[in-house]
Amino acid sequence: MANRKLYLHYLALAGAIALGAILRFWNLDLKPLWMDEVITAIFSLGKTYNDLPLDVVLPLERVPEIFTIQPGVSCSQIAKNLATQSTHPPLFFCGMYSWLRWLSPLGSEWVVKLRSPAALFGVGAIVAIYYVNRIAFSRSAGIIAAAFMAVSPLAVYLSQEARHYTLPMLLITFSLLGLVQVVKDIEKRQKVRLWVLLGWAIINSISLYVHYFCILAFIAQIGTLLVLICWRRANIINKRHIWLALIVCVSVVAISFLPWLPVVFNNFNRSETAWLDPPQNISPLYQTLISWLLMLISLPVENQPLAIAVISGLLMLLFGVWVGWQAFKGLRQLWYAQSTHLATLTLLSFSIWVLLEFFAIAYFLGKDITPIPRYHFVYYPSFCALLGASFAQGNKKDKRKSSIFNLHSSIFILVLVGILSSIFVISNLVFQKPFEPEQVAQNMNQEPSLPLMMVVGYRDYQDVALGLSFALALEPLREVGKDKLISSSPSSPSSNIAFFKQSPDFAPVLQKLSQLPTPTATELNLWVVGPGRKRKDYPQQITLSQQMTCTIDSLQHYRVGVPYQLYRCGKRIF
Are 551 and 566 in contact (CB under 8 A)? Predict the structure, then answer.
């Protein structure tokens, strides 16, 4: 009987891992790359912004050639590139470079290869969270936490982003595993095992070189240890030994990060972080609650008819209230049960410390990171662990079981809603890419039979990455149109892109356009992307190559965080 229970237990774990893997790798290349993913690609391929084709007209079909591996680049060179041109630590990008070099030539499946590591790390986090809850609470709590993370829409979304979110999330989960074990050793053994503490320190040292937000997680773990040692000081006998061991390990982690610390201070005031706005009153509080809701359920709200958006919003709110109530009841039982009180306190303390750090960054530094759901990955593992444990605790109080996985019906509902939400994520109905590159491409390709030129007036390299994301979404649409037209036309319409610096205003871009070589086409659709510009900044007419007059189409002006405007161009008749 015991062997059968163990078999079913591990079968359920394997099922959660398999389900998580399917959801993460399904339609991995469906959504177009957005600006941040383009930036990931550039540095992960061993390149820099200096390798991008600026101030030239580039055929659209040659844009994918930019995203090829640069051979012979060392990790130290990638670190140098990031220190001078980006705001990220180097370890993730070094790993990505090794991965892409191993898979080269990348070919037409390069987007899948670029996003695959994030999906793999996301699957690894499912296994890691199982062990966190197994050690902290019970095996059933581990299974429920693993199942929840497998279907959590936020976790699936992060796993399909070519960004460094799931790797630090995995490392933070491992560090929580070490933290829980350290706390248990202090409580039960009255000492800390060296190999456990050393492993915990090594994981934290690595994480600091993967994502800067891991600094917040490390500080939260230190704060949690301080709270627990003070809270339980009456039960701790060998205080001096424990304090000494913790101080040494924390010092080792801090010292290991010293070489990169000057870069961190330099990055803080860079323009790439200037987009974060200061908080509005209590907005960080309700924005955090919204992020919690998106960890549980995500129904179509973005770019939907008002009726669908309202119904989806209400259903999400009701489901969130129900889950919150179930979790609260379970957490209360965990808190008052002697066997689970310490683990509950550990994970709650970690979560609270991270949230306090988020609010401190918002209110004291004037950079509100709470509205961005992906940034909440810092405490997502502890959120997942506590939710899994609370539902497992509630399940012990109820004899009703589901017929498949031996779980309470409420857990079945939680997982089922998660699967549905994740399918919406995978289908690009929720967590749509910022700046909507797919929609921008469709708007620009309204007339596939006409030649097209997209001009991006960039202020910085982020604008260049944004323009490349638009070009990557537009290029396959133009290729499909070209294939359809090639049989009925002796020559297919050309498609080009150009990046021109706008400084201090839009005049340099207009001047560059007037100096371009004379196009062969008699008609042309010119799309001008003007980050930072207003509608009034677009002139009524633009001269192209001294041979074409381009007239603004007032009905074709759009804004997706940045404005873009259509001009219809025709050759002058002399």
Answer: no
